[in-house]
Amino acid sequence: MKFTLPVKFLSVSAVVLSCVVGCASQTKPVAEAPAPAAPSAATAQALADAQAAVKAANDLDWIWRDTEETLKKAEEAAKAGDDAAALKGAKKAKAEAVNAVNQYYIEKAKPMLAALQAKRKLTAAQKELVSSAEAAIRAAEGKKAYEMLSKP
Predict the structure, then answer these.
(1) 80 belongs to a structural domain
(2) Residue 103: how many CB atoms within 10 A of its CB?
(3) Which residue segment(s) compose the domain that 80 sits in?
(4) Would residue 5 count as lying in a domain?
(5) Number of domains the chain contains
(6) SS in 3 state form for the chain?
(7) Residue 37 pLDDT greater than 60, yes or no
(8) How many CB atoms neighbour CB 135 within 10 A?
(9) Quick check: 96 and 66 in contact, CB under 8 A?
(10) CA separation for the pair 117, 148 (Å, rounded)
(11) What is the pLDDT of residues 61-118, one digit of tens each?
């Protein structure tokens, strides 16, 4: 009797173990994820526009802190097939880059405007230029103000 109890326990353990190992060793076929679709034409164009705007801001060395990271995330979303996230990120990156370029020109135009305003006895044309440049700066049209004030 003493001998049969361990044999019974051992045989039950062997059956349970074989069931567990047998179930664990069976693999289910894994369906391959479909390849991500190419970005839509609108997304591709938005990414191209954003890349050009970021390049313009980089060329002026006036890029905002997170703009390049936003563009990178948009490009990754496009590669992953997430058109909506890619489009949203590209638009945000472009807007940030355009605003950075505008800020650059506003910061360049302000001292030029101040120097012109400090002059005495301005001609009518110069007074009109000061007025137009002030209006452009107030309207956040930095490049326009800079170009007006840069003319000889």
Answers:
(1) yes
(2) 16
(3) 36-150
(4) no
(5) 1
(6) CCCHHHHHHHHHHHHHHHHHHHHHHCCCCCCCCCCCCCCCHHHHHHHHHHHHHHHHHHHCCCCCCCHHHHHHHHHHHHHHCCHHHHHHHHHHHHHHHHHHHHHHHHHHHHHHHHHHHHCCCCCHHHHHHHHHHHHHHHCCCHHHHHHHHHCC
(7) yes
(8) 13
(9) yes
(10) 14
(11) 999 999 999 999 999 999 999 999 999 999 999 999 999 999 999 999 999 999 999 9
What count of Cα atoms within 13 Å lies in the side-chain half-sphere of residue 131? 7
**Locus of tokens 């994820």:** 33
Q: What is the pLDDT of residues 2-29, one digit of tens each?
A: 656 666 666 666 666 666 666 555 555 5
Residue 9 lies in a domain: no
**Residue 110 confidence (pLDDT):** 95
Spacing of C-alpha 100 from chain mean position:
14
Q: Is residue 27 part of a domain?
A: no
Structural contact between residues 52 and 93, judged by C-beta atoms closer than 8 angstroms:
no
- Contacts of residue 47, defined as CB under 8 A and 6 or more positions apart, other chains included, come to 39, 71, 74, 75, 78, 86, 90
